[in-house]
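User: Study the fold:
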Amino acid sequence: MTATRRSSNGGGAAAAVPEWVTTLARRQRTGNDDEAIAVSFIASKRVEKSDLVSQQNRLYLPTDFVVANLFGLLSEEERAMANLVDDTGGPSRRSRTEAEEEEMTRKPKAAGRAHGGLPVRVYARCGFVFYLRLTRWNGSGGTVIKGDELKLFLTFSALKKGDKIDVWAFRRGGELCFIIGRP
């Protein structure tokens, strides 16, 4: 099985999908290790300190890889749910209504804003599944995977600052799924 691995400049080169990725995707999709399944390379990155900070509660995906490799896998509806509809790689500015602005000035913010996002399944290399969301981080315009189970994902993946990870995607009954782990 091969996937197209595109660099941030849009050039493509064929790269073999690691066996652990194809095996995990097949098991999750069909339960049959021998059935062919389409797996797409999304990104390679180094785990940064900010990816591991529980207050941030997000795993950043490099924008150039998202634009080159992920957009083609998403429908317009999915892009809208993930707040990626106007994406050219730059930050998206969320406009507030007058009522929202008034509400913000009346009482202090107790917790971070709910970002919503596209529900996705994220599989760790060990095979565990985590139910997270793909969305845009409004401050930086970066695309992130976040959610309540992210801390569990990071724990079971045993990721540390500086680790190189690959992000792969496939569909399970129409639902977008990611496989994230060390190569």
